[in-house]
């Protein structure tokens, strides 16, 4: 039985070209890029060439890219270091109620240190209100951290509009772009972004690799204490093979391919929804299905069927989906995203699954998923009928 992987929002498989690039650099560029002899110079060249590719992908300058271990480090660095550095200007921060835990937990830490955080609410489609944002903005706001797109329901935030509003304000603007980067066009200059976090493994690159865009002029001490790597902005010996593999994954997807992939993912969403409707399945979409959302993510509520049962039965059918964010899927805690959207008493919180597409998914995968869901739902209905 061919297994079907539909949890690409959690992680993606490294593609052959990316693996080849990484293994090649493991063999040829294993030197320490901070040393001055030939081994180090060769590694440094690969490092800086890769940095250039990453910078170009978001319309940044090379010196604005700080290499990290991934989205969590990028988020923590941007949020905590901004707060600690700028607290003399104020101690107020704005975010949303549906951020990733890599944003929420450092904010909770800062609240313990005396900072005040405003958590913007979302509607039933997972969207914030710009009116709410403007009302929350204060003279003592020092940081706004709002994700580019949500990792559970795929809603996109009004990043460009927020950046424009903050042009005449002291607050720095950070966005967690982990889910959006590599799939949607990002331009940090156009959108007036000061800080942006990414992660390579969300776009078929290696794990424990990412970067933090730090606009030229943004200054705070290195979050990690140690050596003077990354021009004293991030201590630790650079993982040159992983950086090269990350850049390869980014370079593979040109703008035209990104658009085509998003169109294919949108088609997958529509195909699943139509297939379930045609078979009389009682379900609802959590969020919106529209072309300009994160089309790789589809969150569905199957009424009366627990997340655990649906996820387990699909796993037994050889299909991998998620019950929510991969970082909390093993927890018994309800999804904070669905809770924010529908309320703590909504049955959707414990009866929903997240389906997320990737580069390797095919029409056949989607057909298998729909067939499996229909079979599971009908079997459960028959079992309940017999029990009654």
Word description of this protein:
The chain has 388 residues and is α/β, with parallel strands linked by helices. It has two domains: 16-252, 3-Layer(aba) Sandwich (Aspartate Aminotransferase, domain 2); 254-387, Aspartate Aminotransferase, domain 1 (Alpha-Beta Complex), CATH 3.90.1150. The chain has helices at residues 16-28, 38-56, 71-86, 101-112, 130-136, 159-165, 229-232, 240-252, 255-278, 307-316, 336-342, 363-387; strands at residues 4-5, 65-68, 92-96, 116-120, 141-145, 172-176, 195-197, 210-214, 283-285, 297-302, 319-320, 352-356. Helix 2 packs parallel to helix 8 (240-252). 48% of the residues are buried. The model has no long low-confidence stretch (mean pLDDT 95). Keywords: Aminotransferase, Iron, Iron-sulfur, Metal-binding, Pyridoxal phosphate, Transferase. Its EC number is 2.8.1.7.
Topology diagram in text:
Layout: E1 4-5, H1 16-28, H2 38-56, E2 65-68, H3 71-86, E3 92-96, H4 101-112, E4 116-120, H5 130-136, E5 141-145, H6 159-165, E6 172-176, E7 195-197, E8 210-214, H7 229-232, H8 240-252, H9 255-278, E9 283-285, E10 297-302, H10 307-316, E11 319-320, H11 336-342, E12 352-356, H12 363-387
Parallel strand pairs: 1-11, 3-4, 3-5, 5-6, 6-7
Antiparallel strand pairs: 2-8, 7-8, 9-10, 10-12
Number of strands: 12
How many separate domains make up the residues?
2
* Count of alpha/pi helices: 12
Q: Which structural class should the secondary elements be placed in?
A: alpha/beta
Largest sheet: 7 strands, mixed
Q: How widely separated are the two ends? A: 34 Å
Stretches where pLDDT is under 50 for at least 5 consecutive residues are none
The radius of gyration is 22 Å
Report helical residue fraction.
40-55%
Overall 3D shape: globular
By CATH, the topology of the largest domain is Aspartate Aminotransferase, domain 2
- Give, in spatial order, the strands making up the sheet with the most strands: 2-8-7-6-5-3-4
Strand fraction equals 5-15%
From the 3D coordinates, which CATH architecture of the largest domain would you assign? 3-Layer(aba) Sandwich
GO molecular function, one term: iron-sulfur cluster binding
Enzyme class: transferase
Family: Belongs to the class-V pyridoxal-phosphate-dependent aminotransferase family. NifS/IscS subfamily.
Keywords: Aminotransferase, Iron, Iron-sulfur, Metal-binding, Pyridoxal phosphate, Transferase
């Amino acid at each position: 039985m061919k297994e079907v992987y539909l949890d690409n929002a959690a992680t993606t498989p490294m593609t052959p070209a990316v693996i080849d690039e990484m293994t090649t650099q493991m063999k040829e560029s294993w030197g320490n890029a901070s040393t001055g002899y030939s081994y180090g110079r060769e590694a440094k060249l690969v490092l800086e060439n890769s940095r250039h590719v990453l910078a170009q992908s978001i319309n940044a300058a090379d010196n604005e890219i700080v290499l990290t271990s991934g989205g969590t480090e990028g988020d923590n660095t941007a949020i905590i270091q901004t707060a600690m550095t700028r607290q003399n200007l104020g101690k107020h921060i704005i975010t949303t109620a549906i951020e990733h835990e890599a944003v929420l937990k450092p904010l909770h830490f800062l609240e313990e240190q005396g900072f005040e955080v405003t958590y913007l609410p979302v509607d039933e489609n997972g969207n914030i209100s710009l009116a709410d944002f403007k009302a929350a903005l204060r003279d003592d706001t020092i940081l706004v951290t709002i994700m580019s797109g949500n990792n559970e329901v795929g809603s996109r935030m009004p990043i460009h509009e927020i950046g424009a509003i903050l042009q005449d304000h002291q607050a720095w603007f950070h966005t967690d772009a982990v889910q959006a980067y590599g799939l949607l066009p990002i331009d940090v200059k156009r959108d007036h972004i000061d800080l942006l976090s990414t992660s390579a493994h969300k776009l078929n690159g290696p794990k424990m690799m990412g970067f933090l865009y730090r606009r030229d002029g943004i200054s705070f001490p290195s979050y990690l204490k140690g050596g003077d790597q990354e021009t004293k902005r991030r201590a630790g010996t650079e993982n040159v093979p992983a950086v090269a593999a990350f850049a390869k994954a980014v370079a593979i997807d040109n703008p035209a391919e990104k658009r085509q992939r998003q169109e294919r993912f949108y088609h997958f969403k529509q195909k699943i929804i139509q297939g379930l409707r045609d078979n009389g399945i009682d379900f609802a979409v959590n969020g919106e299905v529209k072309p300009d959302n994160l089309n790789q993510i589809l969150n569905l509520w199957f009424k009366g069927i627990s997340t655990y049962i649906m996820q387990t039965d699909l796993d037994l059918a050889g299909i991998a989906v998620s019950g929510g964010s991969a970082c909390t899927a093993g927890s018994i805690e309800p999804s904070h995203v669905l809770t924010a959207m529908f309320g703590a008493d909504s049955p959707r919180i414990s009866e929903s699954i997240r389906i997320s597409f990737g580069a390797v998914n095919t029409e056949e995968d989607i057909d298998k998923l729909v067939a499996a869901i229909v079979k599971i739902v009908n079997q459960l209905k028959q079992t309940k009928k017999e029990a009654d």
